[in-house]
Design brief:
By secondary structure, the protein is an all-alpha fold. 79% of the residues lie in helices and 0% in strands. The chain contains eight helices and no strands. Helix 2 crosses helix 3. The longest helix has 50 residues. The chain is elongated and about 90 Å long.
Amino acid sequence: MNEHLTATDLERYLDDALNADEQARVTRHLAECARCRARAANAQRVEAALRALPRATAPRDLATLITTAIEWRTTQDQARRSRAPLIAAATLFSILLLLWFGFSMIVTLEDNNAVDFFFWIASHPEIVQTHFVESLSALFELLPISEMFLTLFALFTVAVLAQQWLDSVHPQAIFAPDKS
């Protein structure tokens, strides 16, 4: 035989789980193939070593611990699912606020001629270099600082709420806190 035995073949052979034809095929292969014989011998040694290990007994309250963990997880999943619509609505409203504040900021930039000032500064860098403090002061006077902060705050809120919504719809593995 040219093909080596699979791990499943070896496992079933060692567990005497093969039918007569499969048993004969594997036995013939092991007689011819040193590599598979070595793998089978190694698997038998590992199995013997595992059988020699002392068996641990399960705690008496294992069923209670498992049931408590399942109940805790179920409660967490239900709470998470019940928050999803509220988080989605809050995310939607935050997106609307972000759009409103962003539009307000753009309108204010246009009203204050800040865009023209930016282009003017870009085309005259020598003025900014010689009158840096005055240029910076003029820039701050033209910028809609409150609208910018509100827009950034709305953007941050959208990001946080969107993450919360994603976590409630597609949770990562949540483990019960260790109560010991």
